[in-house]
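Retro notes, item 3 of 5
We never archived the inputs for the (2S)-2-hydroxybutanedioic acid complex last cycle. Fixing that now. Sequence and ligand:
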Amino acid sequence: MVKAAVLGASGGIGQPLSLLLKISPLIDELALYDVVNTPGVAADLSHISSVANLKGYLPKDDGLEHALTGADIVVIPAGIPRKPGMTRDDLFKVNAGIVQTLINGIVKFCPEAFILIISNPVNSTVPIAAEILQDAGVFNPRHLFGVTTLDVVRAETFVQEYSGERDPSKAKIPVVGGHSGETIVPLFSQANPALDIPADKYDALVHRVQFGGDEVVAAKDGTGSATLSMAFAGFRFAESVIKAFKGEMGIVEPTFIYLPGVPHGAAIAKATGVDFFSVPVELGADGASMAIDILGSATKKEKELLDISIKGLKGNIEKGIEFVKNAPPK
Ligand SMILES: NC(=O)c1ccc[n+]([C@@H]2O[C@H](COP(=O)([O-])OP(=O)(O)OC[C@H]3O[C@@H](n4cnc5c(N)ncnc54)[C@H](O)[C@@H]3O)[C@@H](O)[C@H]2O)c1
Ligand SMILES: O=C(O)C[C@H](O)C(=O)O
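Structure as it came back at the time:
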């Protein structure tokens, strides 16, 4: 039996993500929580003739407690999205508090669940979650993931003309670092199968992966950011976590983790100087079973990109940790 919960289930990401989870045969029970509209979203999705038994919850009547109790996996797309002209860091003020509230709920009602954080800025919201879980004495770094799969999905899509794959997802391209602008680093040199990117196209391709989110924000013209592609990416990552939990071997996904708490991660933390970083991670029944160090094989150009990424990430991570340290005592 697998129970999944979506927090922020009525939103632009939450609704299509909940649809994908509802039709997945891997999930037996699905709980949808949001501060608004979950009765309608749940009523609608509950008519779909698929395996998952689905219920919607609001904050009233202990909704968060009911949504989270017994959950094996919690996916969090709650929080405000960007508008043109904003950075993901501009979302911190509002979203840090939302993530704090929801992680406090997880501490109380399902501290052993896998936690998948989509809410931006991921570079800071994941450290916020880690710090809260740590303070509560329930932090299992193998169970906490910042979802950076959309960066991988974009890289696969944008290199299709060079990968020659009819199905772009067949090209495995590790994307490492963080999830905002220059902290995102596609390692095209590590693609499998190998790519032949013309030298004069390389910089534009890297830039497109790093700033793909801005393309969508601009096109949506003030009405939000990526929702449908993110639902696809969030579902792909959640499905990988669940498949590994159920015993499937050999699943590897890049994800933003607390490196010192995951086997083989401490060496990467030492080499980069940051504790939180997205790297390819082997998933197992207990979550992140091993961080895979591919940074040493990066090209000179990729190492320059990594240096820029690390510089940016340090401030984002520190900001998340400080937020929890300075939070008023509960
Ligand atoms: N990690 C990524 O790659 C990635 C990609 C796209 C978007 N995002 C981020 O995901 C977040 C959500 O984006 P969206 O487009 O779905 O936004 P949205 O505004 O459409 O939906 C957010 C939902 O969160 C709900 N919410 C707010 N506070 C809540 C709380 N305390 N508890 C439960 N639910 C709450 C809202 O009611 C709303 O339904 C944003 O922060 C966005 O930047 C991340
Ligand atoms: O760009 C955004 O703000 C949303 C998301 O992080 C994305 O990469 O599309």
